[in-house]
Design a protein that fits this description.
Elements lengths: L3 E2 L5 H11 L4 E5 L2 E4 L1 E3 L2 E3 L3 E6 L6 E7 L2 H19 L3 H17 L1 H12 L3 H25 L5 E2 L4 E5 L4 H14 L4 E4 L6 H13 L4 E4 L3 H10 L5 E6 L1 H10 L6 E6 L4 E4 L5 H10 L13 E5 L3 H13 L8 E2 L20 H16 L3 E5 L20 E4 L6 H4 L6 E7 L2 H8 L5 E7 L3 H8 L4 E6 L19 E4 L4 H6 L1 E2 L7 E3 L2 E3 L4
Parallel strand pairs: 9-10, 9-12, 10-11, 12-13, 14-15, 14-20, 15-19, 18-19, 20-21
Antiparallel strand pairs: 1-16, 2-3, 4-5, 6-7, 8-23, 13-22, 17-18, 22-24, 24-25
Length: about 525
């Protein structure tokens, strides 16, 4: 049976809803494609070089992103610094009221924001809704806790917070962080991710600006804008979420600065399997782990398995991998009617055809080097539209014993590819789980929880789960990383507010050049 787009979800319909909601943020068409303005100097302005942005869903052009040059970005930062000084003097009660007004406006457009995420970054509907909901629910919690968190004289930083975030969680990571930073008395600057999320972020920031919040949203190349958004003297703090390569550049740019920063980078998060028998429990965790094609910093792409358990592990694991559902997030059959649920998928496309091709090459390279392909899924039979471009889609793959020189042995694939390493001793287990010089999360599957707790002490991960996965967390949960996976202050709960304020004589939790300090996780 041929599939079709669910009624009312086409990009033309979705974009029309966005333009109707926030017309001030959109500009004239270029080559028949609408353009986004930049939110700079307190207003939406049609400046910058229009650059087409494609959707990973079917590789069609969605919008023109107006990319600013460094000079325009510098003027935006100067204006944001002036707005910061005024906002920092705004009474907390008013800041809470304005943030709450923004939250109410965002909630009123929740379904639009989620549908934009489906088209822009390929999230299935359920996961797109969860990204929006986590942002709103999380910030509402902070509104209720912020008086306590600022008690004792904590004040805003000397300048605005500059946010440079990856594309995978525009709402629950980027917008969430900005709204908390605003609550704490800081103006905020955000760089639109080049690979996706621009329209969703534009709608969200328009609603934030209407509520009177001092927010700046600008687009441009990372190389060109980094000097301004990282090193400009007016910037009070730099928040970065992304890969180790770009994160390393940001960290290097801050070496001769005492600027507050929190730099989150990916690590090779691992599950260790040792003296374990609760396979049904683990199966449920691993199926959920494939959400969004493992395109997130807390995904688990590595399994380190005791040799005596490899057969039992594979009996559980391979059926889980084969059950993973992926495809076009909005493709439905002829029986679908308005009001029916949208497709229930684990993931859609990767963020781009380029990333998909890169991941396929890594798999092929690893197999040529000696890895054993235990499973290599196919796109055949997945729900796609007739004639649809599927270049950004990658089926799940599982490789046993990737060679030491393989890129998949030492780096996170950021896609639905898992690797399995077999070990004979707990020393080998720890060594393989610590292979990437630090991680954000790790987990141990072990029937003896006392033994698991002892092993966890030697894992280079910020959070360790015993017979369960660990995530970034919400509300009061702290979040950070060990080793090269994190630089600067940790965030989450009270730590996020402490990271974007000053006052008191306590040392912040985090990884700094002269010390590391870790909270209880």
């Amino acid at each position: 049976m041929a599939l079709r787009l669910a009624e009312g979800t086409a990009w033309a319909d979705t974009l029309a809803r966005a333009v109707a909601a926030v017309p001030e943020a959109f500009g004239a068409e270029v080559d028949g494609v609408s353009s986004l303005h930049n939110l700079i100097e307190g207003d939406w302005r049609g400046v910058g070089v229009p650059t087409p942005v494609r959707t990973p869903v079917d590789n069609t052009v969605l919008i023109n992103l107006a990319r600013l040059d460094a000079e325009s970005a510098r003027a935006a930062v100067s204006h944001a610094a002036a707005a910061h000084r005024a906002w920092a003097q705004t009474p907390l009660a008013e800041r809470k009221a304005r943030v709450t007004e923004a939250l109410d406006a965002l909630a009123a457009h929740r379904d639009l924001l989620a549908l934009l995420l489906v088209w822009e970054i390929g999230k299935p509907w359920r996961l797109a809704c969860a990204d929006v909901d986590r942002a709103l629910d999380g910030v509402r919690w902070y509104v209720g806790e912020i008086d306590r968190m600022l008690a004792g004289g904590r004040e805003a930083l000397p300048g605005p917070v500059s946010n440079i975030a990856s594309w995978n969680y525009p709402m629950s990571v980027l917008v969430h962080a900005e709204l908390v930073q605003l609550l704490a008395g800081n103006a905020v600057i955000a760089k639109t991710p080049s690979q996706g999320g621009a329209v969703c972020l534009t709608v969200a920031h328009t609603l934030m600006r209407r509520a009177g919040l001092p927010a700046t949203l600008l687009s441009g190349g990372g190389e060109e804008l980094s000097e301004v958004l990282v090193r400009a003297p007016e910037i009070g703090a730099v928040a970065f979420v992304g890969g180790r390569s770009n994160g390393g550049k940001v960290a290097a740019a801050l070496l001769d600065s005492d600027k507050r920063h929190f730099i989150e980078q990916e690590g090779l998060n691992a599950w260790g399997i040792w003296n374990f028998s609760q396979w049904d429990l683990l199966a449920g965790h691993l199926k959920k782990g494939f959400e969004y094609g493992k395109q997130r910093c807390t995904a688990y792409p590595r399994f380190v398995v005791q040799r005596d358990l490899v057969d039992e592990f594979l009996d559980m694991y391979l059926p889980v991998v084969r059950s993973v559902r992926f495809g076009h997030p909005l493709a439905v059959d002829e029986t679908w009617q308005v009001g029916d649920a949208l497709p229930e998928l684990d993931f859609g496309p990767l963020i781009s055809a380029t990333k998909a091709d890169e991941l396929r090459r890594k798999v092929d390279e690893s197999v040529r080097g000696g890895a054993v392909p235990l499973h290599r899924g196919k796109l055949d039979g997945a729900p796609f539209l007739d004639g649809q471009d599927t270049s950004a889609y990658v089926a799940p793959a599982v490789l046993l014993a990737p060679p030491g020189r393989s890129r998949l042995m030492h780096a996170e694939p950021f896609g639905p590819v898992d690797t399995i390493v077999v070990v004979d001793t707990t020393d080998e287990l720890l060594a393989q789980m610590n292979a990437s010089n630090g991680a954000l999360v790790a987990s141990l599957a072990c029937d003896d929880e006392e033994l698991a707790g002892k092993l966890a002490v030697d894992l280079q991960a910020f959070k360790v789960g015993i017979n369960k996965p660990r995530s970034r967390g919400d509300r009061e949960e702290p979040f950070g990383g060990r080793g090269a996976s994190w630089k600067g202050a940790f965030v989450g709960g009270d730590l996020l507010v402490q990271a974007v304020t000053q006052g008191g004589d306590e040392r912040l939790y985090g990884n700094f050049p002269d010390y590391s300090r870790y909270p209880t996780t």
